[in-house]
What does this fold into?
Amino acid sequence: MRIRSNATSLNTLRHSENNLKSVENSIKKLSSGTKINSGADGPATLIASERMRGQIAGLRQAHSNNASAVAMFQTAEGALSEFSSILLQLKQLSVHAANEAVNDDAMLAADQQEVDNMISTLDRIGGTATFNGKSLLDGSLGATGAAVGDNVRFVSAKTSTKDSPTEGYEVDIVQVATQAYKRGSVPLTVNNIGEGVTILLSEGGRNVEIDTKMGKEKENIEEILANHKQFPARFPADQASVDIRGVVMQSIKEGIAESGLALEAFETPEKALYIRHKNFGSESNFSVTSNISGLLTKNANIAELSEAGLDVAGRIGGTFASGNGQYLTAIEGASPAKGITIQFDRTIGLKEVPVKNEQGDVIGTEFIEESQAEIVGSPDNPRIEGFVHLSQQTKNVSLGPEPGMEDGFSFKNIRTSNLGQGVENESEYRSLFDIDVTSVQGANDSGRLINKAIDEISTYRAEIGAFQKNVVESNLNSLRINDENITQGESTIRDTDMAAEMSKLTGSQILLSASQSMQAQANQLPQNVLQLLQN
It folds into this structure.
């Protein structure tokens, strides 16, 4: 029995201290709600938890960013919706102004006044649609371009396209786009019309048959032939042939229009029939069948495919560009011009050249088709058609919590001077801004430009809607799911299991109470030595 060292008391004290620490630790976890309160509680677990907390914070901010982006796109959509409504009213006015039999000058002037007011309103909408102080529809948040050069027009650019240098991106056209066509070799005359003309045209899954052996065409042609046979001096063969071709040509044009074929019919300077596709490029074609050899086909009553059209070919910014009809797009690659699309609307026409005899004297003229080299140059005589200048102001929408998780959307400039461009019209209107409905021709041409503007705005609204729905809003759902899953994972790693910790606390408290009681008992042992000494 020793009194200098009470080993039993020291042992009991150690257990009491451990139990007290266990109680304090449980209380800390229960009061904070987390089982990792410091690095000492679990170094590796702390690292994983902090990383997850960083992801959660980024995901929640990204969710907020995406919600703001949705609001921005909805603001643009609201302005474009009103824009579309006004375009429909413009269409209505152009149709009203074309009613020549009813309208007078005062009515047309009133229509034009409304047109001018609506054009001003459209431009005002484009300039005032803003979100958080940023204009959305004036081109300041997109790729704005302009082309310099005859027949070169800037169309669009991708969000990844870089700003052009000071001199612009060089446009070098090496091939002009052409349309599919079918040209006859024999003029239609009183001598070869026989019993009449039958032509079958097939394009885009639609067919039309022109038959002058029946109906009003038959009557008109029979009357022309009868007059020529009965009075050849008054109705000579040449004039009768001209009249017959006029009847047939009118019948072809009416048939094409009624059937909705994308074709055009002409008469060549050599008086032969010429049918061509309205669209440029190699993807558009049609077939022709004729009952007269040489009229449009080499052999009678055998279908022949049209001569293929050509896509425009060339380079933009020194890089090969892909052609589709009259549209040329710089391909994806190392060039900063990648994604730029331009339109080269020059067409191959006919030129009049003199015809000379063996002595060199001019005895007449003939029309021949221009060559590609005459229009765009040749390898030996290269020619630069123009330059494209691009200002890239596209801004990215942040889609995720990490750098690089963004996507850009280019807001277009919808001012009326940029809408309805590239539409062929006799009034020479270059854009929607120029339209005038004070004449029948002007009203009809205005309607064509308005139709294209309606299509352009509808397409633009569809682009905004697709980006909002499939990129931003879809990403919002993904962010919510990721936030939920990562939060659950972080909770599993770091949050306190309250029930388990309460059970542990209860056990620790019991042990602490027991150890404290035993501490009192251990401290009583030296009293036995005192009793021994007293005895």
